[in-house]
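Input record (Table S2, row 270):
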Amino acid sequence: MHFMTALGAAWQQRNSLLCVGLDPDPAKFPAHLQGRPDAILAFCSAIVDATADLVCCFKPQIAYFAAHRAEDQLEALIEHIHARHPGTPVVLDAKRGDIGSTAEQYAVEAFERYKADAITVNPYMGRDSVDPYLAYPDKGVILLCRTSNPGGSDLQFLDVGGLKLYEHVARLVAQDWNASGNCGLVVGATFPAEIARVRELTGDMPLLVPGIGAQGGDVAATLAAGRTAAGTGLMINSSRAILYAGKGEDFADAARQAAIDTRDAINAHR
Ligand SMILES: O=c1ccn([C@@H]2O[C@H](COP(=O)(O)O)[C@@H](O)[C@H]2O)c(=O)[nH]1
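Output record (LLZGTKA7 complex):
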């Protein structure tokens, strides 16, 4: 199924714009999982099973798996999501960016090895570095635009001929790169004014919005700036605030409650 079709269905059927980010840090795992060789998979699967009915997508961040030589557990986790929670899109947060021949390998890794439904990509090496991902028309290609970190302003706020660089990226992607209708953009919840500007430039393009929860982004301002007329258009990510809501054996129940609270806080402003 096309990523955008699956995302649209998840928004409607789950009545949720919440994306749960899967950033497993073994140092923060509850004691009973510590030391298990499959701890990352066990932790993430429990979070997924506890929250799947509350989300429009999951976003595993590849660094948290690769850093612990746990790519096999990432593969198994995505297989688990597709098998147990069909119709739940998986956005692989990899922020890839390289010349075309290398990008082809990254695209195979994301879409064929991991079977992700979408990937985050850094657009700053230009169109030919993104084409290998766009060549999979059913897969989502979510390009960094206005990132949530303070240092994002160093480059993304530069003036490039009357527009800020992030505005240029938003317009370029919306008007040129999105021929297959499979592009989205990353815009941080920490910058609601820029969410509004990106929404203005891109129509109803889906926006992946990290930065609520641990980074302190404002939910109400995010919704006011970024929701579409249909009250959707956003994948609002929270990772640490949900994953580590509890520290004990009931960590998945605590994560579920945190996800319910976050989904409801988002829905209160749709
Ligand atoms: O601009 C960006 C792009 C990506 N991220 C990623 O989102 C999550 C945020 O985690 P929290 O614990 O909810 O802060 C993480 O995987 C980042 O790599 C981002 O924060 N900002």
